[in-house]
Amino acid sequence: MKTFERLLIKLLFIQAIILLGVQFLFHYQHIEPYVSKVIQYEGVDKMEENNRIETFKH
User: Fold this and answer.
1) Residue 20: what are its φ and ψ, rounded to 5°?
2) Is pLDDT larger for residue 45 or for residue 9?
């Protein structure tokens, strides 16, 4: 039982280190556009400034 507990503690420790590393990358580095495809699905990847047509005169 001690070997299983040691293995479980090691796995939890490794997972915590990986979690903190990934959180750091996403929070402090601007890496999300390179790893996330949500930006491409939403259509904001290649946005261009368009001329706006006002329909109401103030």
Assistant:
1) -65, -40
2) 9
Q: How far apart are CA 27 and CA 50, in angstroms?
A: 31
Confidence at 18, pLDDT banded by 50, 70, 90: very high
Higher pLDDT, 33 or 23: 23
Residue ranges of the domains in the chain?
2-42
SS (H, E, C) 17-57: HHHHHHHHHHHHCCCHHHHCCHHHHHCCCCCCCCCCCCCCC
CB-based contact 29:35 (threshold 8 Å): no
Residue reference for tokens 């903190």: 20
In a 13 Å sphere around the CA of 30, the CA atoms on its Cβ side amount to: 0
